[in-house]
Amino acid sequence: MTQQGWKFQGDQGEFKLLHPENYSYLYFPLVNEAGMMSAITPNLHGEITTSHNTFLMEPVSVESLHNSKASRNFWVHIEGYGAWSASGNSARQNAQQFSNVKEQSYMEAGFLWHKLTRENSEIGLKAETVNFVPVGGDQVELMKVRLTNTGNSPIQLTPTAAVPLYGRSADDLRDHRHVTSLLHRIFTSEHGIEVQPALSFDERGHRINKVTYSVLGSEASGNAPTGFFPVAEEFIGEGGSFDWPEAVVTNLESVTKSGAAIEGYEAVGGLRFASTQLLPGESTSYVIAMIISDDRLETERYTKDYLSEACFDALLEENKSYWQDKLETISFHSGDQEQDLWMKWVTLQPILRRMYGNSFLPYHDYGRGGRGWRDLWQDCLALMVMEPAEVRYLLHNNYAGVRIDGSNATIIGSKPGEFVADRNNIPRVWMDHGAWPLLTTLLYVHQSGDIDFLLQPQVYFRDSFVKRCHERDLTWTPELGNKLVSRDGELYEGSILEHILLQNIVPFFNVGEHNNIKLEGADWNDGLDLAPDRGESVAFTAFYASNLIELSELLVHLEKSSNMKTIELAEEMIVLFDTLSSAVSYDSIAEKHALLDRYYDSIVPSISGKKLKLDVLKVAEDLKRKGEWVIDHLRKNEWIANKEGYEWFNGYYNNDAERVEGDHPNGVRMTLTGQVFSIMGGIATDEQVGQISNAVDRYLKDDQIGYRLNSQFGGTQQNLGRAFGFAFGHKENGAMFSHMTVMYANALYKRGFVKEGYDVLDSIYRLSADFETSRMYPGVPEYINEKGRGMYTYLTGSASWLLLTQLTEVYGVKGHFGDLHLEPKLTKEQFDQEGNAHVETLFADRKLRIVYHNAQRADYGQYRVSSITMNGQPISYEEYGRGSLIERSILESLPKDGTHSIHIILDI
Q1: Is 732 helix (H, G, I), strand (E, B) or coil?
Q2: Which one of 166, 288, 697, 803 has the lowest number of neighbouring Cβ atoms within 10 Å?
């Protein structure tokens, strides 16, 4: 697709944007595994941090990016001209932006580096500024500025690097901002400035601080700065500012030298370098390091490791190779190279989510780092493809957050498997949380064949909240710890399968007045948070129903494959399998509630620790009966038709127990979420899927912003959720919310509605990649607003779902209890001119290049697999559904090194 904004350069996903300063809200991530997290804008604004409590630069939101004057900056004072900023961030250059005086500028970026080039023809000076975060163990961001004389006359210049050093917690931005500056202890050394606050003032209390924030620099030759401007008010001058500082504008001499110690002021990493003359065509470079360290710097080591042009260039190449290698784990090759390159950036996003969590980028200026419960599971979807070695460990640890009542911890620690009690004393349950772990675990089991994972033991989370946070157990105190113990004080562990069963069976009985599962605090849409008493989520009732069927089939497979006749479960759980003891009427809400109360009473304040062996097939039959009852209930009671003749599934009931969707005096009300899980889980019949698709196109599809999350409800809906307080077309109220839109496409593909699914995915790509409207770099945003702008870029769970959908549904590469299942659903547009489409991915710990050859360019539904070869040799496979199965043993016979080619001929 033709780009009016950024354009890809080459075939590695690198892109270029002319005059990037003309666009607001743009930023780019720079990060490493050591925990350095940066954001950088076209004028080098942004932030640098390692946690909520340790910001080197001031924490920013997107509005700060164009309103704040504090940024990474590199100044030159030019004899006969005055002050000029290499980043374009000066009062003079900002004033010229909307005039006829125009500097040439462009940004280039790749995985994961950022380059800004600016040239002023009047001066005859070009500045190339490259920033990246090295992949090593230090928390450091590097910047190199290369100045080149592009004119015909010599230029006499004096360079000054200037990076404001905030050096404290985000909480201090507005809470005691000045008081916390009094804690600053500022030190200068040969190559730079360090700030080590004496204390940290944050939620942890007033504590002795060791964390140090530094800006070091040198000339390319290794020469140190000639002096420093460490105090912000002295650098900018009385009446000055960071975009027109007195020290640069008047070319003040730097009086502070190495070895100084200053206390009690806002700091800046102001490094003055020696004046120099650049002859025409001549260049000079400077390297700047921005560092967060656990204590005062080993300045000699950092100088040696980072402060030379040779070190910078070598580390940059290492960084590029590291990210390219990581992202080469999966790549797509279709008839649209632009979209394939765009998908490389989508592939990066789940990794960024793992590293940043949901914080520390300008749109994500909320939270204190880390991820939520839902994020743990959905991010693992992509990690199974991108970083599979870690997934089993992560999944196992995640299950330690499940409570014995089927709910889960909502405060996630920074380490895998670390969960803490709610710090704000707010009891809350998101009703959808129990549904996601099975989906992710099943993907793992199918990809790996590791069905024994289900039988691994794991602890349960314990805090004061019991009975799905409806009551408190006052006998529990934090000193008792956050792990469930039995009545005799022994740590209790249950199998992963036991955890999954609890998460899915407890909600089955936790129903509202219409016999759908209660909405509780909210479901996937956090904005539906005002219906805790009488609200119901029909959408996720459908998800849980399909989970119950999946669990039933999983147990049957376990029994057959492992000859496992019994399953061992906590004795208190027997009541939940009512058909094995005393069956209740599922039509009776009262009987469901009474059963659930009996279970709750049996586990509060503790459990016995004893386990019972249950017949696997009888448990499977119990689950199947529950799932089938829900499916029948939804089909009979929640399928709605409106006056225009469109039909779909109702998704919700509000806090007045009123059905949310359908005809309404304010217009037709419809939610996309209400359709996704009924399609994906098989609740909707094939005929109903077609009807839903028509209704979605009628009421939710908008050519300007894509598939809306909901239609216009009108009013603030205080009986449903805060989302409706947002302006319509924004965020959870009627925007194109990528996460649910991608899941809608996934559901359509799963059910064989490939053309419809393709249209949905194609719309997401075209809306996101249309820079003139979306105003975002390559990738998928969290949502697209009413104007078509991509919002909340980089950190979104939709990237995991998009990557997974592209691999497992579009290219049809997935597992089946460890075997390779190939079932392509590519449309004719997705094959190249030779009729080929291929994907490279990991499976069975081997790198595979899976090539589909469609010589006739037939469309989906017309072609079938006619032959399969591996590394040029025919292999055996069996037909499975509409696809083919290759036994895992065949793949495991291959060497682990190199890439193995699987070639599939598609024929009519």
Answers
A1: coil
A2: 697
Measured in whole angstroms, how far is the alpha carbon of residue 254 from the centre of its chain?
A: 44
Averaged pLDDT of the chain = 95
pLDDT at 192: 97
Is residue 730 domain-resident? no
Over range 818-827, report the average pLDDT: 98
Task: End-to-end CA distance of the chain: give it in Å, rounded.
Answer: 30
Give the C-alpha separation, 804 to 180, whole Å: 46
DSSP state of 453: G
Q: 181 pLDDT band (50/70/90 cuts)?
A: very high
Q: Which of 802, 823, 795 is nearest to 741 (CA)?
A: 802
- Tell me 727's DSSP state: P
Question: What is the rounded distance in angstroms from the CA atom of residue 140 to the CA atom of residue 36?
Answer: 6
Q: Judge whether residue 614 has pLDDT over 50.
A: yes
Report how far residue 573's alpha carbon sits from residue 169's, in angstroms, rounded to the nearest whole number.
46
More confident residue, 42 or 478: 42
pLDDT (0 to 100) of residue 54:
96
CA distance 494 to 406: 13
Residue 821 has pLDDT above 90, yes or no: yes
Q: Compute the C-alpha angle 41/800/133, nearest 5°.
A: 35
At 330 the three-state DSSP class reads coil
The stretches of 605-685 forming alpha helices (DSSP H) are: 616-637, 673-680
Of 305, 327, 349, the residue at which a domain comes to its end is 327
Indicate the number of domains in the chain.
Answer: 2
- Spatial separation of the C-alpha atoms in residues 517 and 651, rounded to whole Å: 11
Give the contacts of 703 (CB within 8 A, at least 6 positions apart).
Answer: none
Question: What string of DSSP letters covers 229-289?
Answer: EEEHHHHH-TT-BTTB-HHHHTTPPP-B-TT-EEESS-EEEEEE---EEE-TT-EEEEEEE
Element (H, E) at 375: helix 373-386
**pLDDT for 2:** 40
Q: Is the pLDDT of residue 142 over 50?
A: yes
Tokens of 314: 């070598």
CATH value at residue 298: 2.70.98.40
> Is 667 part of any domain?
no
Q: Report the SS3 class of residue 743.
A: helix
* Domain residue limits at 183: 9-327
Between CA 572 and CA 591 the distance in angstroms is 18
Q: Is residue 194 part of a domain?
A: yes
Residue 422: its pLDDT value, please? 66
Confidence check: pLDDT of 3 > 60: no
Q: pLDDT digit string (tens) for 514-527?
A: 999 999 999 999 99
Q: What is the DSSP string of 798-835?
A: HHHHHHHIIIIIIS-EEEETTEEEE-----GGGS-TTS
Reported in sequence order, the residue ranges of 470-551 that DSSP labels E, i.e. its strands, are 471-472, 493-495, 536-537
The domain that holds 878 is classified in CATH as 2.60.420.10
Distance, in Å, from the CA atom of 764 to the CA atom of 672, rounded to the nearest integer, reads: 15
Rounded to two decimals, the pTM is 0.96
Under 8 Å between Cβ of 325 and 335: no
Q: Which residue from 158, 212, 173 is spatially nearest to 189, judged by alpha carbons?
A: 212
Cα-based torsion angle of the residue sequence 556, 558, 561, 567 in order, rounded to the nearest 10 degrees = -110
Closest to 849 in 3D by CA, of 901, 809, 906, 892: 901
- Please report, for residues 9, 233, 241, 332, 864, the alpha-carbon distance to residue 749 in angstroms, rounded to integers and kept in the order given: 32, 60, 56, 18, 17
User: Reduced to 3 states, what is the DSSP secondary structure of residue 184?
Assistant: coil
Q: Which of 327, 342, 376 is the last residue of a domain?
A: 327
In the predicted structure, residue 495 carries a pLDDT above the cut 60: yes
- CA of 611: how far to CAs of 264, 308, 328, 408, 721, in Å? 62, 64, 46, 21, 41
101 pLDDT higher than 70: no
Buried b (16+ CB within 10 A) or exposed e, 106-136: bbbbbbbbbbbbbbbeebbbbbbbbbbbbbb
